[in-house]
Amino acid sequence: MRILHHLPLSPYSRKVRLALAEKRIPFELKTERVWERREEFLAMNPACTVPVLVEENGFVIADSYAICEYLDEAYPDTPLIGRTLGERAEVRRLVAWFDTRFAGEVTRNLIWERHLKRALGKGNPDAAAIRAGYANLKPHLDVIGWLAEERPWLAGPNLSLADFAAAAHLSALDYANDVDWEYNAAARDWYSRVKSRPAFRGLLADRVSGLEPPAHYADLDF
Question: Residues near 15 by Cβ (< 8 Å), separated by ≥ 6?
Fold first, then answer.
């Protein structure tokens, strides 16, 4: 069976899960506690990061972007990286935005500092970083809201990996009740459309030990 090594609150793992589910590619999840640095996992990915996809024939792909590019080439019936050169360039630009800038300015400052740092014995949360994360989230929601108002989906006329990259980060934050959905109605409406897709059902069913999501997390209408 195809196996995806993941962590539940990893937005990069969530992005790959959404891509697999949207393409209707069956897979099993295996939680990988990367801090344990298992030798078997290090042999698959020396960087010791998730996600890592192991195909049915044993082929191993590490890194969420490499996995998603592979999936779009190997299983092209449901394209997620655009249908034209222009669309593909815009999808890649936005995926890079969410997986680098959004991740560095928001996700790390909230998910890591608030919910993971102390649990993994890495010290106490940094209050300044948490404040920065909340402050940085607002302009990012404004960007998402603007794109959602100007286009059918974030990168253009079709649902794409750009939507899943953004939704992956926001869903992890939403699980931790870190998103003020009243701040930007357009961003909220876009997210509601994305999480209403069948591909999102697995994420909405997630539960993390010691951290319960808010009541609206799995509510498709908030």
Answer: 64, 68, 99, 161, 164, 165, 168
